[in-house]
Amino acid sequence: MNRSLTLPALLPLAFLLLMVAAPLARLLQEGHAGFSLALLQDSYIQWRLAWSVGQALATCALALLIGLPLAWVLARFDFAGRRLLLRMLMLPFVMPTLVAGMGVLALFGPHGVAGVNLQDTPWLLLYGNLFYNLPLLVRAGVDGLEQVPASRLAVARTLGAPPWRTFWRVEWPVVRPWLASALCLIFLYCFAGFGLALLLGGQRYATVEVEIYTLVAYELNLADAGVLALLALGVGAAVALAYAALERGLARPQRLAPTLRTPAQGWPQRLLLASALTVLALCCLLPLLAIVWRALQADATVWAMLAEPEVLAALGNTLRFSGAALGLSLLLGLCHGWAAQRWLALRALVFLPFMVSPVCLAFGLLLLYPQYSASVGLLIAAYALLAYPFVAKGVLSAAAALPPQLPQAARTLGATPWRSFCRVSLPLMRPALRRGLAFAAATAVGEFAVSLFLSRPEWATLTTLIYQHLGRPGAANLQLALLLSCLLMLFALLAFVVIEWPEKNHARAD
């Protein structure tokens, strides 16, 4: 076996073994040792499990009901700013969960901008879930609908089929696998979500992930927490396998004539387009605007609190931990992405960290490495674990688009595979690598669950400081939490600009 090929692959493999496989094995051991039917017969635990599954299914249903018509409008109508709008659908993905939660509270919480208090109701969490997941289904729907052959649509229209019949007979069979894949991800994100459920669920509508955190952090009940984590892992693994099977089918290349988009004509189509854009803004933009609006109403004394040592220390910790995690993510992502081009097993492991919830992962690390639970090294490694797959995926995607003649020419001239990658392929991958690093930076800056489990009080980051101020009484603490959320939002927006900034010679105005 080529030694130059093996060495870069060993680093991500060893990292995944130490940071994912071993902690999960320890978590499974803890859950198996403490497994008891009495726990599952507890009505309180049954409600937590039922609600965790129910809110994920309800979010899937709402996202499909709202998102499919929006995707159809965006796929079939052409209008000014369409490409920009499709790019803006990526914005929620770079927003930290606490920012989204604060936006929902600023909108529909006590004294919210909307004037409607939905606290202690299930709708608060469901709306927060839609903020993140509706763009995912819309984007998948648009991509799927664009795979519909133009010839089939033309034949259906020629034969006089009405729009609803054309959709059901021609478009639905093509877009269905794309929607199913997106719905698997939405279920996984909602079921394994932690930050939104902690902030918006309250006492009654908290999920299993929040219950695991409560059992560990406040009750030190590791046995029951291990059982719940074991159940959560089982559900997550089943959904992740379904998603992988669907994605394998969607990865097959198709050569189809693109469906032509037409401008909206007549007042019914214009009304349909305006309604779709309004719904997207209400679900995906309004919470962010509500944060800004409430933050601008803060008193001058609260603005002055931004210069307090506690806030400055949290800002410094956020930048310090995220910067170190980003450097480690770059190293791991390059090695993993490069080696995965030749090893199919490594390609399948790129997104392994995303198949496990951060709460279960942090709990497993806490059980396996108790002596390092309050160390900077373990905290940064956990940050990098959740961030580096974006870099590896960017490297893989860019490598697949490279002309194979270039690295072959370098190899012919005597360059080793690693030298050919660094000197020839890597410079051409810079745009994709930049986007991957931006996603990784947004993930590290907004990480919340791992910070709660593994950090010390003096290591408070912006996310944990926001949560601390939300738990303190008084309007000043709420206003400061909103201001800190605006600061986090600014970091996320910077990452979004880096991700979506058009490349030279590729920028085109709508």
From TrEMBL:
Q: Where is the ABC transmembrane type-1 domain?
A: 49-239, 315-499
Q: Name one Pfam family in it.
A: BPD_transp_1
Its transmembrane ranges are: 49-72, 84-109, 121-142, 178-202, 222-246, 271-293, 313-332, 344-366, 372-391, 436-455, 475-499
User: What keywords is this UniProt entry annotated with?
Assistant: Cell inner membrane, Cell membrane, Membrane, Transmembrane, Transmembrane helix, Transport
Q: Where in the cell is it found?
A: Cell inner membrane; Cell membrane
Superkingdom to which the source organism belongs: Bacteria
Q: How does it sit in the membrane?
A: Multi-pass membrane protein
**Main localisation:** membrane
Family recorded in the similarity comment:
Belongs to the binding-protein-dependent transport system permease family.
Q: What is this protein called?
A: ABC transporter permease subunit
